[in-house]
Amino acid sequence: MRIRELLGFILVLATAASGLSADKPRPKKPRLDLRASPRMAFSPVNVLLTAELQGGDNIEEFHCPEVEWDWDDGGRSVHQEDCAPLETGASLERRFTANHAYRQAGTYNVRITMRRADRPLAVASATVTVRPGLGDMSSID
Question: Is 141 a domain residue?
């Protein structure tokens, strides 16, 4: 009987240390999705990127994240809002957009990273294919 009590005590300690309780289920983390429009075009082209948090719960760590865009053409953009604390019952901002101009032909793997306190929360990517347009000599050898 003593071993069973000890194992029960260890289980209670482990549950408390992990932040779990029998009454409170672990929140579901949203998934980040990224879309480009257009996905294929002729240069030069302005592309609209839309990142969206899909599903999951309104987890506070996803409130007001730093958003980094890697354009895969040597450029990066970082955005950080100055937000008030997340209030109980409030919804997260779930949609983030940015425009980027591609001047030369190529296949670009655009990547968005959401961070909180320099820790990555979510990453998504989308491919943009740019064909040579009038005056674009970038793909001619």
Answer: no
Q: Rounded to 10 degrees, what is the CA torsion of 108, 114, 118, 120?
A: -80
Residue 117 placed within a domain: yes
What does 64-109 look like in DSSP terms, one character per residue?
Answer: S-EEEEE-SSS-EEEEE---PPPPTTPPPP-EEEEEEEE-S-EEEE
- Domain-embedded: residue 83: yes
Strand partners, 123: 113
Residues 110, 69: contact at Cβ < 8 Å? yes
Q: What is the pLDDT of residues 59-86, one digit of tens each?
A: 888 888 999 999 999 999 999 888 888 7
Tens-digit pLDDT profile for residues 121-130:
999 999 999 9
The CATH number that applies at residue 126 is: 2.60.40.10
pTM for this entry:
0.76
